[in-house]
Structure formats: structure tokens, C-alpha cells
């Protein structure tokens, strides 16, 4: 009992042990935050890979391959495959209003089939519910618009007679208020434009069926093929400080010219012919690389633009003589596995099925030229990089955490020297060497436990609200660490793994106890007679 009493007596009456608690707290919080962010990024990539890319993809060169419909039937007949969809992918130039050119990744696909193998359906941005939500938020913002006007007027009144530094601070606040007022006005106006464009129909249905809403008077969008664009492809879709999108210039119904480069089956390049499309919806995956570059168009339209549709074969010696028909081509096939089947198992099964299919259709490219890979293999370099960075950061910060062990050792060494007479009295009263040593070990364990608990709590709140903290740093100090234009995902990812947190917590307490072992041994070896003479 005396061990516990002395432990808390020392803890209450000394300031220096709190330095050790602070050291443990910072080290634990630092490790948990780093591992959670890196782990969150890794988990986000893992989830996005299968949701946005499907489980397995097979593809060949830009010239494409034939018999894709029969191949899809053969794949969907496999017990390991749930669904498959053919795609055509190429790069193109999108010319928008004002002759602004944007390089995009053009994907030709059947949207309903795509939704069966990826999360395309969940990524559609404009739905009946989302449009109503945006309008409701806009109404709420408009209700507070008069307050912003009064706030702006009050800030202008404070400028009179203010010092230069105060005027700078007030001027920054005025700019923030004006930005909010501008976002509210522009956002409301453009939401009304979007609402009128959909004309009471469900916006999601147009993205799922590649159809335009009922034609408005003077509207040309219903006369051209539809297109669904990434939310970040439109440079006028901007996020405010709260991370919400403000639509500055909606593209829905806007005719835009798309140019792609056709390549024949023999690999010859044909002069491109631009074609006008109209955006009927937008999609938002949260993955910036996809949201800022990809556009979806009807499979048959892109197939026609790239000269990959069914065509007549003519006699090379007499172009007027038709000798057959060249089958249509696709660029790739995306496949979703049934529940319980891994992507690797599905890939192996598809490889076997393709080998048999190729034997019956020798004009298809052989397997070395027909890539069959899982989403994990597609992202292998990125996943390995994140995993290695996570391990490296954990190792480096673990080395830094050794400082807390050394600090505890130094603190307890000082405590042993200071409490030499107390130790001698305890030994003279019959306390064993192990009993004396255990006082300091328990003392270190309590310090480690308190520091670990505080560090875990701090890390939990930082990890949970890290995007809000980042937004506040940007508003208050102009500090932007996570630029969504640089990283794959818009928000800072984070994931608290209870197992990893538990390992760090146990390791922190053990490290604190280890730091007190040497001073505890010194205290246990104190001679009671000599210590009572100690000054």
C-alpha cells in the first residue's frame, strides 16, 4: 500500500514529472496521428480501387479488340463473375464556352452496366435529393444574407480611426464576408439554372440512361449526344472554406465540342473530327485524379468517333468490292466478382477462360498483349508507396519517441538522488530492495498511463476533426497543407485502428517503465546506513 501512496504523493508535489507526462503525451499523439492519416490514405485507396475500377480489368492497345460481346457473355457465365461491361477509353480535347480547351480522359460505356461493376450510380452528383438539399442550404444562406450585410457595414465603420494593423485585420474580415455574400448570390442563381434545366425530372435518371431532359425552347442540348463529366472538370465548380461546392458556371445543357484521335485496327492514325456533346449531369467520386479528368459518353458514339464500329472490308486490289465485314471493337472489359471471390481468384479464372476463348478466336490478341489485372495491381505502385511511407514514418517517429524514455530516465535519476534519505528510511523500516524499486517502476507506469491516455484523446480529436482544423488554419492563417489539386483525394483521409492504437498505448507505458528501470535499480541498491547520512 505504501508504494501507491508514495507514487501519488510524488506525483502531486513535484512539477518535473509533468514534463515526462507531456513527453509521453506528445509522442503518443504524434504516432497515432501519423499512423491514422497514412492508414486512412491506404484504406481510402483500397476502397476506391475496387469501387471505382471494378475488381478485374482486361484491356489491350488503343486499336482495341473484337468479339468483346461474346467474351463478356463467356465471362458472365463464370461462377466467379457477377457482371462485366465493355469500355472504350481514350484521351480527348474538350472545348468549352470561350474556346477554353481541357484535356480529358474520355470513357465510352453503357452507364447502367457500368453501375453494376463500379460505384458509378453512387457517384452521380445531381440527384433529386442532392438538388433539393442544395436548394434548402441556399435558402438558409439567403435567410442570413441580411446579417452578412449588417456585418459588412459594421466592419466598414470600424475602419474609421483604426490603426494600420487593425485596418489590415478588419480588411481581411471584410473580404471574407464579401466572399461569402458573393458565393451565396452566385450559388443561388446557378442552382435555379440547374433546376430549370432538369425541368422537374430526376437528374440521376439522365446520368443513368444518357438522356437529356425535356427540350426547352431554344435548347440545342437535346439534339446532341449526352455526356456526364467529373465535377472538377468544370473549373468553375469551386469549394468554399467549408469544403462545399459553389457552382459558379453550371455546364448542364451546355453544348461542348469533343475531339478524339481515331486509330485504325492496323494502328494508323486518322484525322480527328470533333463532335458536339451536352453535359446532362456530373459525377463526384472524391478522387481528384478521376473527378478532374474523366468524362463519360455513350459507348456507341465514342466507338463511331474512333472508327471502332462494325465496318465493311473491301478488296485491297479493288476498293469497290466488299469482301466482308470487320467486327466492332472495344478497348477493355471491367468485371465485378461475386461476393466471397477475391479479385485475384477472379483474375486467374478470367485468364483461363480467355485462353480457351482465344483458341477459338485466334484473331484476338494473345494473353501477353491482352492485359488482365486486378485493381490492386493497377494501383500497386501507389499502394506500395503509401505502405512504405507509413512504415518509414512510423519508424522515424518511433526513434523520436525514444526521447521520452531518456527524459523519464533523467527525471527518475534526479528523483532518486533527491529522495536518497527517504529511500534509506524505507529500507531501515524493513522495505525490501524489490519494494523500493517497484515504487519507481509503478511511478513510471502511472506517468506512462496518464501520458498515453492524454495523447490518445488528443490524437482522437485531431484525427476526427482534421479536415475542419485544416480549413480553420486556412481561414485564420492562410496555411494550406493538403491541396486537393496535388493529392488524389479532396479531404485528408484518416482511420483510427483500435489495434494500432492499442499497440502504441501498451508500447508507451512499457517504454515509460523501461526508462525508470535503471534509476529503480539504483534506488534498490541504496545502503540504508549510508543514505541516512546523505546530505
3D structure, described in words:
The protein has 535 residues and is an alpha+beta fold. It folds into 3 domains: 2-48 and 380-531, no CATH class; 61-127 and 202-362, no CATH class; 128-198. Helices cover 56% and strands 17% of the residues. It is built from 20 helices and 15 strands. The strands form 4 sheets. A 6-stranded mixed β-barrel has the order 3-4-10-5-9-8, surrounded by 4 helices. Strands 2-13 form a two-stranded antiparallel sheet. A hairpin with a 3-residue loop joins β3 and β4. α2 (16-53) packs antiparallel against α14 and α16 runs antiparallel to α18 (498-515). The radius of gyration is 33 Å and the shape is flat.
Q: Helix count, per DSSP? A: 20
Mean pLDDT: 79
For the secondary structure, the number of strands is 15
End-to-end gap: 28 Å
Residues in helices, as a percent range: 55-70%
Largest sheet: 6 strands, mixed, barrel
Backbone shape: flat
| Residue runs with pLDDT of under 50 for 5 or more positions | none
As a whole number of angstroms, the C-alpha radius of gyration is: 33 Å
Q: What does the oligomeric state look like here?
A: single chain
Amount of beta strand: 15-25%
Give the structural class: alpha+beta
How do the strands of the widest beta sheet line up side by side?
3-4-10-5-9-8
Overall tally of structural domains: 3
